[in-house]
Each structure stands twice: as structure tokens, then as C-alpha cells.
Amino acid sequence: MTDIKITGELEKFSYSLGMSIAGNLIKSGVNTISPERFLQGITDTFGGEMPKIMPAEANRILEEFITKASKGQSNENLEKGLQFLSENKKKEGVTELPSGLQYKILKEGFGDLPAFTDEVKCHYHGTLIDGTVFDSSVERGQPAVFPVNGVIQGWVEALQLMSAGSKWRLFIPPQLGYGEQGAGGIIGPNTTLVFDVELLEIV
After folding, report:
1. Structure pTM?
2. In this structure, which topology does domain 94-202 adopt according to CATH?
3. Which of 55, 69, 78, 156 could form a disulfide with 190 if both were Cys (CB 3.0 to 4.6 A apart)?
């Protein structure tokens, strides 16, 4: 690809806008488009030309396409997650609870168990099943403090079983995480999550 220099306020704004639109589309589950037709739609609209597709029809097409793309991603994530969890529960040291939550104890703790209404201080490192990091207090170098009942269901269940000072690896199925909605960014719909959680103290 030719290295195009982007200079001037309008050019920089235009490029940045393109990046923003593309990023939002990807988050919505749209991973490919026709750049030529996309540009034509922009050119016709800014130029005041008669649209090739009327606005009402265009809105319907957008809604149907994005819904279909999102559902496809959701089904793919769910299938991959179920396969992962099915294999994972067979591994040494992994326990599966009736809810579907799986965990592995990395370090035993000897403190108290937090209650549902307690606040806790934790270090955590969250990844997708392929190892992609999406959030990590460890990388930020700053533990997080939050109420036990203020996090995703998989955490709520696990924290009440963890002694202060312990470190567990949690394998969280979608229904105990962010479900069909996902959480934006790289946590898509029906995504299985993996967390290393160290319960530092009950505050």
C-alpha cells in the first residue's frame, strides 16, 4: 500500500473519522465491507446526489445486516467457549461448579471468606480464551477495590468461596459474564472469559 501522508486539519479529521466509524462497525460485528460502495454512499450524501437506496430502506438494511453479523459472532463465540470449557474441566486441578463456573486454585489463602455485601481488594488479569488481554490491574500496577455484589456473576460466586490471600484462575462461561450483550471492544457477545484473581484483603 502507498504511504499516504495525512496533513492539514481537515485531512486529519477525515481520517480520524474513518477510523472511528470502522472501529464502531467492528465492535458491532461487521468485519468486512465494500470500501468502494461505502465511499460512494459518503460521496453521494455530501454531494447532495439522489441516493441509490432510499433512507428508510437503507436503515432496514443496516439493522438486518448488523443483527445478522452480531448473531453470527455470538454463535461462534458460544461454540468456541463451550468447546474450551468442555476440554478445560478435564484438566488436573480444575473444578466445575453446578453454575458452570470453573476454577483452579493457584495459591491457597488462609484468611476469611468475604460475604456478599463486603468490599474486597483484588489484583486480577483478564483474558479471552485465546490469551488476548482485555483488562488487568496487574499490568496497571494498581489493585482494584469493589463490592463483591458489584461485579459479574462469575466473580460474585467465586469471591465468596475464596479465602483472603488466595489466588484462583476463573473460567467464566458467558451466562456468568457479559452474556449475549458482551461488553464492547474485544469482549463480544457470548464470550467465555478467563481471570486470574488474587484476593488481597477484605476491606
Report:
1. 0.72
2. Chitinase A; domain 3 (3.10.50)
3. 78
- If you search the block for the grid coordinates 470449557, which residue do you land on? 85
- Are the CB atoms for 202 and 118 separated by under 8 Å? yes
**Does domain 9-76 fall into CATH 1.10.287.460?**
yes
Q: Which of 84, 103, 135, 187 is catalytic?
A: 135
Collect all residues with Cβ–Cβ distance below 8 Å to 172 and sequence separation of at least 6: 101, 152, 154, 155, 192, 193, 194, 195
* 152 tagged catalytic: yes
- Grid coordinates representing 34 are 465494500
Q: Indicate if the pLDDT at residue 13 is higher than 60.
A: yes
Our answer to whether residue 13 is catalytic in this structure is: no
38 counts as catalytic: no
Q: What's the pLDDT band for 2 if we cut at 50, 70, 90?
A: low
